[in-house]
Each structure stands twice: as C-alpha cells, then as structure tokens.
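Why Protocadherin-19? Reviewers of the renewal asked for a concrete example.
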Amino acid sequence: NAPSFPTDQIELEISETASPGTRVPLESAYDPDSGSFGVQSYEITPNDLFGLETKTRGDGSRFAELVVEKSLDRETQSHYSYVITALDGGDPPNFGTVELSIRVIDSNDNNPLFEEPAYTVSVPENAPPGTPVIRLNASDPDEGTNGQVLYSFHSYVSERARELFQIDPQSGLITVSGAIDYEEGHVYELDVQAKDLGPNSIPAHCKVTISVQDANDNPPLINLLSVNSELVEVSENAPPGYVIALVRVSDRDSGANGRVQCKLLGNVPFRLQEYESFSTILVDGRLDREQRDQYNLTIQARDNGIPSLQATKSFTVKITDENDNHPHFSKPYYQVIVQENNTPGAYLLSVSARDPDLGLNGSVSYQIVPSQVRDMPVFTYVSINPNSGDIYALRSFNHEQTKAFEFKVLAKDGGNPSLQSNATVRVIVLDVNDNTPVITAPPLVNGTAEVYIPRNAGVGYLVTVVKADDYDEGENGRLSYEMVEGDRGFFEIDQVNGEIRTTRAFGENAKTAYELIVVAHDHGKTSLSASALILIYLSPALDAQESIGSVNLSLIFIIALGSIAAILFVTMIFVAVKCKRDNKEIRTYNCRIAEYSYGHQKKSSKKKKISKNDIRLVPRDVEETDKMNVVSCSSLTSSLNYFDYHQQTLPLGCRRSESTFLNVESQNSRNAGSNHIYHHTFTGQSPQQPDLIINGMPLPE
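Here is what the prediction returned.
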C-alpha cells in the first residue's frame, strides 16, 4: 500500500512577517501498512523558501512540519506551490503526493507616502465654501485595509484653520468650509497626515501652506505690538517716558485712502508719540497701583479718504505689583496611587501653589527637580505641565520593578529675581495581575512532561508535583492547581501544593499510558493560567513505595555532599597519622654513624645492654625466609652505641653495595641462648646487593 493524503491539496496561509524557523504542522499521510512499511518520511519539492521536518507522535505515527527557512515578502511574491511526498519504509518505497498551496498574507509593512513633503497654494479671500484648494495623494503598496489610506488634519492644526478648511478622508481633497478674511489671516499652514487602516500603522505627513489673496476694501488696521494685544502690564515704579507698547497702524488701501493719523483718547497718564512707521505709548505721569491698578486706553486711527474711514483699538494697562511673596503649595507632600501597566501619558495628579503677588510676580510655573529613579532620570518617568501643575506618566510603570518613587516639584513665580518653593510627590505603583503563571516542575518539553510510575502503585501514590511561579503579589500571585481534562478518574491533584496522587490501583489489564491536562491559575480579579500535558506511563520495572510528600532534592544533595566530604576528611586524617607513625618507626641504619657514636658518646649510668646474640648480619636472600621480630627503631638506635664489635669496623661512607642486613633475633632465640656466628660480608659486585632490614623490609642507605 502506498501512503495517501486525505485531500488532493493542502492550502496554508502564512504571514509575511513569519520569521525563519517558524513551524507549521501539516496533515499526515495515511498508510494501511504497519511497522516499517508505514509512513517513514516526508519531502518537499522544490526546497527553496520552505523546508520540511518529519516528527513522530507519541503513538509512533509520523507527521511533517513545514519550516520557514527564508524571509517572506508578499509584495515580491504572494503565492507559492509545492509538492509534498510521503514515503514508506519499503524497498523500493511506495509514496504518495499532495499539492501544497501557500498564500502569503499581507502585513502592514509599508507606510503611506505623499508625492511631495510640502505644498503651497493660494485662495482668494472671497472664495465661497466648497471651493477646492488642493487634492492630496498618498500611495501605499499594501493590499486590503493595509493599503487603504485615510487623510486627516494633524492635531497641531488650529481650530480656526479647521473652521476655514476641511479635508475629505477618502480622496484627500481640501476645500474651503468657512468665510476667509485676509485681515484675519494671510497664511494658513495645514499639517495633513495619511494613515492606512492596518495594524501598527505609521502615518505619513505633509504640510500644505495656503496663502489668502486680499481685496482692497478695508479701513485702517491698528496692531498693538505687545505680548498681549488686549492687556499691557507696567510696574508701578515705571518712570515718565517709559514705553509700555508699540503701535503699528496700516491701511491696505493706496494713496490718500491709505494715509492714516492716530491719537490717544481720554485723560490718562499716558501719551502717544508717532514716528514714520510706528507709534509708541509712553508713561506720562506718576503711577500708583494702590490708587488705581488698571487703565482702559483707546487708540483712534483715521485715514484721509472721502468719506474717511476710521478704526479704534482699545486695550487695558494693568499696573503690576512688586515681587515680595514666595509661591506656597497647598500641601508640602502629595501622594498618588496608580496601577501598574498604566498608559504612557496618563494623568497622575495636580500640584497647586499660590502667590499673593500680582501679575508675573504672582504667576506660578512648575518644574520637576532633577533626580534619579532606579539610576534613571526622573524625567523619563513623569512630566509636569509648567502652567497647570498637572503631572503625567511618561512610561508604563511596572510594580515588579518599581513599587514607589519620590521626586520634588519646584514652583517659581515670574518675578525678577524669581522666588520659589518646592513640594514632595510620592507615586505608589499598585500591583495588577499581569504575569501569567509559568509551570516549572515537572520539566516540560513543548508543554508536555512524561512521568513513570510502578504498575503496582497503590492508592495515594505520589505521581509527581506540579509547581508554577507567578511574579505577581498577593492574590494575583497565589496559585491553585486543577485537572481539567484527561484520565481524571485515576488521579487527583492537591489544589494548593500541586501534588498528583493515584485514586485507585491499576489492574493487570490497565492501559500503560494516561494523560492529564493540569492548569495552574492565579486568584487575580481576571485570572491568568498556564496548562501542561502530563503523560503518565506504568512501568513494571519500578517498585511501588508509599510517597509521603514531595522530596526535597536540594536537601538530599546537601546530605550526600556532606557525607562525601566527611569520608574524605576522615581518610586524610588516617593517612596522615599512619605516615607520621611510619616515619618514626622506619629509619635508615648507617654503619659510619653507629661506629662514630659508639666511640664518642658517654656511657649512661644505666645502660640498656643488648647481647650480641640479639643481632646478626645476614645476606639479602635470608630476607624472604627468615623474617623475625625486630626491636623498635628508637631502642635499636640507642642500643647500637653499646655493641662490642668483634669484626673489623666498616669503612666510613660505605656504598649501597657494601651495606649489610641487620636483623634482630626473636625473643625465643635470645632465651635459648644459642651461639651464633656474627659476620658481615662485602659482596662488592654481587648482583644481590644487601640492604638494611627493619621490621622485615629493606630500606635505602
């Protein structure tokens, strides 16, 4: 029988963002033959962008996984066709094929692009609503919603510009939508963005500059050249002649209709002085804020046309106070509690400081004092609106990294020199359930663990212990375990410690493998969980023993290591003691030293006399056949000084070949009193060189 696939064609869809190494399981081929004659391998033709890897299931059947080997690009090629061949183990092998059709799914990897980064157009001020201004076009090579572009004004575009112009989101056509007045605005700049509808879209931007063409039909125009055209502030200490504002008067008409004369109306301590292209308003008297803190001034401009057209400009002059008060926070310590994983840019809290001074002296601005939070500048964590004191988060906080942090906010007024004060802000980050449990025991391979237990395991036998970690705290990190699927009739799990135990004995006819799907979930408000497949195999080779609880492998390892260290320590002490004892008992006998000591050492009052019968000189061949007890090394060396030698004294510095064997007779021989002939031999070149024998062992010279 040849392998066969269940369908004639396999269709797959793979995103073009799939990275090399991505695996996709394919449908398995079926072969009625069994064993080695069943399906053994799969092949793919051609083998260019994709590879094929044969996998084996737990039941021994084989299936193929499609492996992405190179990067994909839908814009380059969107469809691929391959032939999958399934081979059995016969000789020759039978095979079956199926056509594999792969469609590369588009991802939003191309951004819209305008033809030009900037456009400049003009429109007359009397253009009616609906007049087209410009049609913009941004192209996107992606398909579907990824390539569908929508146009809109950027948030930077002013509200007034939005009232005067509008843009069609589908076509990109900008048209007039309000009454355009040249005197109100000469030029409008519109920031337009084009954004596709795909995920993670990055918009394209362009700037459209619209110039308004004027019509000559306007009266004189008065411009007050000040920071605020409606309000001018001057210190109460300003001297006479101090300039408080500049005035520019213009008339877009030509000739006499464009020549303008100006004057300041009312009885006020100020005067207007005209120059060629502008005018100035000067202090013309003494100012006292305690008497009057503001003045309303009116400038009148009249042209020389017939009939004459005129215009007036009114503004307020506010007398400011001197800076003599510090800003004062409503409280010295602020605290805010925010949950982790907040949105960057989220509002946290507001700080507020008041200054009783007037004007800039009482105008308070805020800033954050430079400091460090986890070795990072505090400016990377929070920002503050310098005018309102609103504090915003610049990043998403992580409770597991930063539980709380503090910084100082500085409030300073606008005086010169400015006065300032500060307050402390503490941000507490609350934990949320954002960490999924991770199963750490038993070890998992592709989400599966294999456990072997004895076939004769009884009820309550500990199969394994499931452990999981969760980095959250409190209820978010407290875990419970349960079995959701599989052979739950044979096993039970402890919800707290994860111990899996048997609930019944396995008979002779029981199956050899059982499956359990175990889930570890936390107790957060929105519970997160992790699951694992536990494969339990019955093995007759194991002996069943009652398992009392989980085994502490670390404790066993420490005990074993300590036992080995103790045995090694005792062995070292034993060897050291033995070597020290041997060094005391085993000493080299030197003929020269013994003779010299005998002639020069004073005799003790209590001499320990040893009979000549106690020692004898023997050749080497006596060593193996005549081993006798020898006196201790210490007593031997001390007694040698009192021996009376009948033989000729050995020459000094005798060589190894001229040494003798010294052996002390046993206690029984001395008691017998037998007469022995004491002799020494000088063998010279004898192959059996004599040596000194102590305790029956030859020693070096």
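Helices lie at 159-164, 553-585, 591-600, 633-639, 667-672. This is the kind of structural detail the renewal will allow us to pursue systematically.
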